[in-house]
Amino acid sequence: xxxxxxxxxxxxxLYPPRCLLCLAPPRLLRDSFCExxxxxxxxxxxxxxxxxxxxxxxxxxxxxxxxECRSRSLGFDAAMRLGVYEEQLxxxxxxxxxxxxxxxxxxxxxxxxxxxRSRFLSLGVDALVPVPLHWRRRLQRGYNPSAALAWGLGxxxxxxxxxxxxxxIRPTKDQKVFNSFTExxxxxxxxxxxxxxxxxxxxxxxxxxxxxxATASEAAKALKKAGAxxxxxxxxxxxxx
Length: 241
Description:
With 241 residues, this protein is an alpha/beta fold. The protein has two domains: 1-43, no CATH class; 47-238, Rossmann fold (3-Layer(aba) Sandwich), CATH 3.40.50. The protein has helices at residues 2-14, 35-42, 87-96, 102-115, 117-123, 135-141, 145-157, 181-188, 214-225; strands spanning 78-84, 127-130, 166-168, 192-194, 202-210, 230-238. The strands form two sheets. A four-stranded parallel beta sheet has the order 1-6-5-2, with helices on both faces. A two-stranded antiparallel sheet has the order 3-4. Helix 4 (102-115) packs parallel to helix 7 (145-157).
């Protein structure tokens, strides 16, 4: 025990801990992020719509959704987010796109689960389902960030991750090339298939970023078609304010 402590203190002296995002010294010696990055990553200062996770005003009526989603048909029943896609959270999501940073996706999932454990557990979901990549895209990228994120969440929440019940059965273009919601919907229409093992289950559909909710909605529709009872979306970052 004493030798281990001496070794740890020697290691900290030779290699001082640094924030994994900005490289600044963390407030707590053994923490992975500095105080500024922790605030930006894990504290959402804005209220969000419970239906689509978009930012809403402090006095908005959202019992049936916000102005952005109220008139839209969404495949999922509810949505939650860690924060807004900007600053450190946006930078973290972009870093997660590279296979060398798979550890970051897992770590963010774990910390998200740790900080919002009661909210996740109150949902009563049966399993976590990551939004899948088409096999060609996964081969190019090296891994699926949403799957790594779901793994981190599931490990801390002790909820199983079902990685293969939802499949992207045809390749789609990157949603960023489309400007309108209709174009994004058409791009992913019919792109997903789900196994009937999801029948009667409440599933937490996990993704890294949401812009118009077109992809999550189409994936949820596939899960519902296969018999899922309820689909809640958990997205790391939601674009826009």
